[in-house]
Amino acid sequence: YDDELKPYLCTLRSRLNESRPKDQKPGDLNASTLTELCRTSPRLLLQQDHCSDCFMLVRGKEANFVDILSPVDVYPEELWVQASHFFESGEGAAMEMPGGRYACAKELMAMGLPFLQGYSLGQVCHITQ
């Protein structure tokens, strides 16, 4: 919830595997297993959005997710100026980014770029969109 990314079932498995210790094999978590977990847990709630994608909510916890596909630009002009400068010169111009919005956002955040300081992973995914 802190990263402001809606926890879709299709991405939860990958995110859970990311958080496991490196020496541990990936778990056998598929959409069916996660769906069943939601249905049997009193703390979790399974929802569907307008695209019929399922996502998991925690009961009693406020859901404040960034709509990463929104065409509305809610970011200050200075962010875009600094981002343009970074990507058009020096290290940014030479970067090869991974495929996918989520992977790009994670890599950019890991770099500690000043113009992304204070933004959540969900916001950086929206920015990369």
Fold and architecture overview:
There is one protein chain. The protein is mainly alpha-helical and 129 residues long. Helices cover 43% and strands 8% of the residues. The protein has helices at residues 9-18, 31-40, 77-88, 90-94, 101-110, 121-128; strands at residues 44-48, 54-58. Strand 1 (44-48) and strand 2 form a beta hairpin. Helix 5 packs across helix 6 (121-128). The longest helix is centred in the middle third of the chain and has 12 residues, at 77-88.
Which keywords apply here?
two-stranded antiparallel ribbon; 2 strands; mainly alpha; 129 residues; single chain
Shape: globular
Average pLDDT score = 86
User: How does the helix and strand content classify structurally?
Assistant: mainly alpha
| Major sheet: arrangement of strands | 1-2
Terminal residue distance = 20 Å
How does the major sheet shape up? 2 strands, antiparallel
